[in-house]
Amino acid sequence: MELLTTLSAIDIPFLSAIWDFGNDILANTNDATEPVKGAIFNLPGIINLLVGFFLNLLFVGIVVRFFYYPKCKRSEFFFTFILIAISIFLLIYLLGGVKLKTGFALGLFAIFSIIRYRTEQVAIREMTYLFIIIAMSAINGLVMEELSYSEMVAANLLFIASIWACESHLFIKHLSYKVIKYDNINLITPEKEPELIEDLKKRTGLNIVKVEVGGIDFLKDAEIIKMYYRPTDDSVNTVDTIIKAPSDEFKIKN
C-alpha cells in the first residue's frame, strides 16, 4: 500500500493505471465472500460449504463414536447415523430460502416420527440419537444464511454437553430390566417378594433390586415378571425386553 501511494504521487500514466487497478481489487475484496449466482466457480462458497460440512461431520462423529457406540456397539447404526447426518446437512445447506430450509427440517422430524424405520423395530435409544443427529445437521446447514460459525459451534457443544449429562448418570441411577417367564407361582405374592428376588438372583446372577409381576397363567404355573437390576457396566443390552425369539429367524430353509 505504501509503495502504491508513493507511485501514485508520480504523474506517469502507466503508474496511475496500476494504482487504479489496485484500488479496484481492494474495493472488490469486501464482496468476495458473497456467493455469485450462476458463477461457474465460486471459491468462497465452496470454502464455506466445506468448512460447514467438516464441522458438522466432526460434531456428529463425536456424538456417535464417543456417546452412542461405546454403549450399544451396533455398527449398522454408526453407518446409518453418519450418512443421515451428511444427507441432512447437504439438503438443508443447498436449499434456497431460510423459510424453506426450516420447513424442510421440521418436515424431516415429522416423516421420521411417522415411518420410524418400519422395516425394522428400532429401539427408543436409537430413535432418540437419530432425532439428535437430524437436529444437529439441520442447525449446521443453516450456517450459510442465518448462523455464524461461532453460533454453530456453540449450539453443537450444547448438544454434546446435554448428551454427556444424560449419559453420565449425574441425576438418576441407571437400572436395566429384563422381562422373563417365571415358573414358581408360589412366590408371586407381595409378602414373598424378598424370596422371589433372592431366587431370581441365584438363577440369573444379576443384582436385582425390584420386580414387577405381570400376566399369570395358573394352568401352567407361570407368570411374566419384569425384574430391574444394576448393570455391571454401561453397555446397553438390546434384547432385554424380548421374551421369545422371532420364529421367522429360526426357520430351517430347505
What does this structure look like?
The chain is mainly alpha-helical. The chain has two domains: 43-167, no CATH class; 176-250, no CATH class. Helices cover 56% and strands 11% of the residues. The chain is built from eight helices and three strands, in the order H-H-H-H-H-H-H-E-H-E-E. The chain has helices spanning 2-8, 13-29, 43-72, 75-94, 98-115, 124-141, 149-167, 193-204; strands at 176-182, 207-217, 222-230. Strands 1-3-2 form a three-stranded antiparallel sheet, covered by helices on one side. The protein is elongated, with a radius of gyration of 30 Å.
Return the average pLDDT rounded to an integer. 75
The number of distinct β-strands equals 3
Overall helicity: 55-70%
Helix/sheet category: mainly alpha
| Overall structural domain count | 2
Strand content: 5-15%
| CA(first)-CA(last) distance | 84 Å
Order of helices and strands: HHHHHHHEHEE
> What overall form do the CA principal axes indicate?
elongated
Report the uncertain regions.
1-8, 25-33, 247-254
Number of helices: 8
**Order of neighbouring strands in the sheet with most strands:** 1-3-2
The biggest beta sheet reads: 3 strands, antiparallel
Radius of gyration: 30 Å
